[in-house]
Amino acid sequence: MSLAQSPLGRRDDLRAAFGGYLLALADDELVLGHRHSEWTGFAPDIESDVALSSVAQEEIGHARLFYERAGDLLGGTPDDLAYGRAPDGFRNAVLVERPNGDWGFTIVRMFLYDRADAVRLDALAGGPVEPLADLAKTLRREEKYHLLYGEQWLRRLAGASDEAHARIQGALDAAWPEAVGVFEPVEEERTVVESGIMTLDAAAQAERWRREVTAVLEELGLRVTEERGGPGGRSGTHSEDLTVLLGDMTEVWRAEPGATW
Amino acid sequence: MEMIRTETALESRIWDVLHTVEDPELPISVTDLGMIDAVDVADGHVRITLVPTFSACPAIEVMREDIRRRVRELPEVQDVQVDLSFARPWTIARMSERGRQRLVAHGMAVPAARPPARPVACPFCGSTNTTLENSFGPTLCRAIYYCNDCRNPIEQFKPPHDS
User: Fold this and answer.
1) Which of B40, B47, B135 to mutate to test the interface with A (most CBs of A within 10 A)?
2) Of A28, A156, A228, B24, which is least surrounded by CB within 10 A?
3) pLDDT 10s digits, B82-125
4) Residue B68 is assigned to a structural domain of this protein
5) In chain B, how many domains are there?
């Protein structure tokens, strides 16, 4: 059963809200997948190179699945949605558009984002819209490898030399305010939550995420210094970094829109 | 009654075709992988439900197209629709014993179909003195181990994580 044919997808008042929410999920996965792919050929060792390339492939594949479902409700193919929108049409969290920086920032961001994604997938997996709940359960089993990978590296770096620990702390200070922004509600949040599509609203998801990640960070002797969230990105307000990233990512598509190969 | 017999015979010919459609990245058929969830036939209209091992696997579209093209070649078939489904997720228990043996013969380690989990056995020397090198490998469904006895790298067929 496609999403558009599901009982909620058939309701006109919910279709746009639901589609908008799915776009935010898809945009997160696409943009972070693209950032991860930038490590291909440049990661610190061959295993990490393979790992980040594989994680990138998987995030972009997940984005495609969310775009298909968003397109089911809003119109458009996954390619139209991924390549055909201006930066202010993107709803991804600002966190994921930031350049990779060093390996420490990449790992800290991966840990914070994948933990947030896990909370979000749990909320969808428990929801009543079967095509989406089934997909969330599937993605959760695949994302688990990303979670384990990021956390293992985080533990390794935070427990290594003083310099490594300090750099991880610096990466955390930089990433934290924008990581909180992953839970900035989308415009249609209220409609989505009230419809029961998600079992937890963004505020409750943020609280669970904060509790889970701070437990790990504290155990590693890392401090969360900035409690307040920065701009999230869900309403289309982004940094210049996204414009640069999309310029790069959509160059071929823009040269010959609609081309197939 | 006549109708039912005809469709059953067609269904079984469709399954025969599916047994010969292989994963483009591994020597195993889509049926031995356990990817076919259902074959529904009505008046020559065929709907096949495909369950991916990993949802982002780029080989899915190749297999989907192969299935569509090959099943369409059967004279009684008018059209073929191949739907992806996540309703009943893929697990390693869906892989057939024959499929498992083909992958092992190909040089891969394959996890047990059911719990309890067992240590990864080297497909070359049988040793279980193996170490995980990388939970990511050349495809989404492979991890890399190392055999500490015969000193070969090993590709393990990696199922999605159930925990």
Assistant:
1) B135
2) A228
3) 999 999 999 999 999 999 999 999 999 999 988 888 999 999 99
4) yes
5) 2
Judge if B77 and B46 occupy the same domain.
yes
Which letter does DSSP use for residue A240 in this model?
Answer: H
Question: Minimal Cα–Cα distance from B137 to chain A, Å?
Answer: 6
Q: Which two tokens stand for residue B114?
A: 């059911």
Cβ atoms of A67 and A78 within 8 Å: the answer is yes
What is the domain partition of chain A in residue ranges? 7-255
Co-location of B80 and B111 in the same domain: no
- Supply B1's token pair: 């009654």
Cα–Cα distance, B18 to A116 (Å, whole number) = 40
Same domain, B118 and B73: no
Residues of A with CB under 8 A from a CB of B: 47, 50-51, 53-55, 57-62, 64-65, 130-131, 134-135, 137-139, 141-142, 144-145, 148-149
Is residue B101 in a domain? no
Instruction: Look up residue A236 and give its two tokens.
Output: 């289309």
In A, minimum Cα distance to B133 occurs at: A47
Q: Which residues pair with A132 in a beta bridge?
A: none
A203, A136 in Cβ contact below 8 A? Answer: no
Q: Is residue B33 part of a domain?
A: yes
Query: pTM of the predicted model, to two decimals?
Result: 0.94
Cβ neighbours around B32 below 10 Å, total: 23
Residue type, A189: E
Residues 6+ apart with CB under 8 A from A87: A236, A238, A242, A243, A246
Q: Cβ separation of B55 and A134 shorter than 8 Å?
A: no
Q: Does domain A7-255 have CATH number 1.20.1260.10?
A: yes
Model confidence at A229: pLDDT above 80: no
DSSP annotation of A186: P
At position B139, the amino acid (one-letter code) is: T
Residue B45: its H or E element: strand B45-50
Domain assignment present for B3: no
Q: Kindly state whether B131 is in contact with chain A, defined as any CB-CB distance less than 8 angstroms.
A: no
- pLDDT for B33 equals 98
Structure token digits, residue A31: 């943009």
What is the dihedral sign for C-alpha A75, A77, A81, A83? negative
- How many other CB atoms are found less than 10 A from the CB of residue A261? 4
Helix orientation angle between A202-219 and A162-180, rounded to the nearest 10 degrees: 170
Domain with B115 in it: 106-157
Residue B19 in tokens: 């047994």
